[in-house]
Amino acid sequence: MVVCVLSVGNGRDRRTDLSSELPKANPAPPPGEFIREELRKRSWSQQDLAQVLGRTVARVNQIIMGKQEVSPEVALSLESAFGIPAETWLQWEAAYRLALHRELAARSPAAGMPDGDIPRRVKLYEAAPIKEMQKRGWITTTDNLDEIERELLKFFGAASLDKSPSITASMKKSAPAEPLSSTQRAWCFRVKQMATALKVSAFEPGKLGQCERDLRRLAAYPQESRKVANTLSNYGIRFVVVEPLPGSKIDGAALWLDDQSPVIAVSLRFDRVDAFWFTVAHEFRHIANGDALSVDTDMVGAAQVPAATCDVEDRANREAAAMLVPPEQLESFILRVGPMYSEDRIVQFAHSVKVYPGIIVGQLQHRGEVGYQANRKWLVKVRDTVLSASITDGWGHTIDRRVFE
Fold it and tell me: Which of 163, 205, 287, 311 is spaced 20 to 30 Å from 140 by Cα?
């Protein structure tokens, strides 16, 4: 029997037969109609069918009248009696019961079947990873849909959630070719939100060459990574660190608050010196090239994407690698030493090009010259060093929401 639970005054539940409250003009006929047809073909009575099935006449009558559901057991019995597959009886039963529920919901929405808020929840949860954003303190924790929507509109700075909010403020720059997931978009908006609160020097594109040289000098020692944020700030580039949201696989991003306000963000998803510096260099080259928005995923590590998806990313990859290690010198080193890359030879080469050995190891791994387990002692952690001098969201670092309001 299909029932709904209705609250009554004494706090107990009363069960109501849906079929008794609905008009008989049901678009999906009950299985009983098909049973009647089979009985007619055979000139059987309900008593005859009851004897065939080994059930009481009362129960057979309930099934025919739609008062009793066709269970899998009954469906198998009807299959044996009439030769119609049990699956077909169960499909007829499911279609009939679903039609009853649809009709009841249309006539009496207060009954709560189905929940009328489901479409709205779908819209909100497709727009953003709400639970993760609440967990991180990006929006207020609440189950009230009106409040959730207001929080999302404020977070995205949008008037409506009918379309994806725009991240790139610069109208002179092209939008990204690939759409972002809701998780990636939320991460980028957190980056944008944090970057807006930062004060930096005026951005002068003509000084980016000097900025690159200053950054490159920091790559010689892991502890110098704490100076990246300040160095970029001196050249008008905002730098923020945001812990990635689950499933986003973001390594870094480059975006613009306006035409004169570039932002570099990293997730430090991989706490390794080579991953940090390649991500910083990659995003820096996007800024230097005036690319509108780059959200980079699976750039480093064993799971890295083997080939860039577009010319813009391919260019940034090449230029980032060259920014850290002169390509002609790396090629010469590979020809002279490979495949016998001893630790001493790697360290000597790193010293000759004035970069930390872990960065050389990372580039050799990326080229497939050494395995991802080789020389791992040089892939030192830098996350704590970077976080010590950077505006950060994640890993226990929280920022008062009022800072951004």
Answer: 163
pTM score of the predicted model: 0.77
| The pLDDT of residue 253 | 94
pLDDT at 107: 73
Domains, the chain, ranges and CATH? 3-111 (1.10.260.40), 118-156 (no CATH), 182-404 (no CATH)
What phi and psi values does residue 202 have, to the nearest 5 degrees?
-65, 140
* Cis ω before 114 (30° cut-off from 0): yes
Task: Decide if 225 contacts 242 (C-beta within 8 A).
Answer: no
Q: CB neighbours of 47 closer than 8 A, spacing ≥ 6? A: 57
CB contact at 8 A, 89 and 78: yes
In this prediction, residue 178 carries a pLDDT of 65
Q: Is the pLDDT of residue 18 over 80?
A: no
CA distance 163 to 31: 44
Element (H, E) at 254: strand 250-256
pLDDT tens figures, 74-86: 999 999 999 999 9
Please state, in angstroms and as integers, the Cα–Cα distance from residue 148 to each residue in 121, 138, 188, following that order: 10, 11, 19
Q: What is the mean pLDDT of residues 370-394?
A: 93
Which of 255, 300, 295, 250 lies closest to 273 in space, CA to CA?
300
Residue 308 has pLDDT above 70, yes or no: no
Give CA–CA dist 139/151, Å, rounded: 6
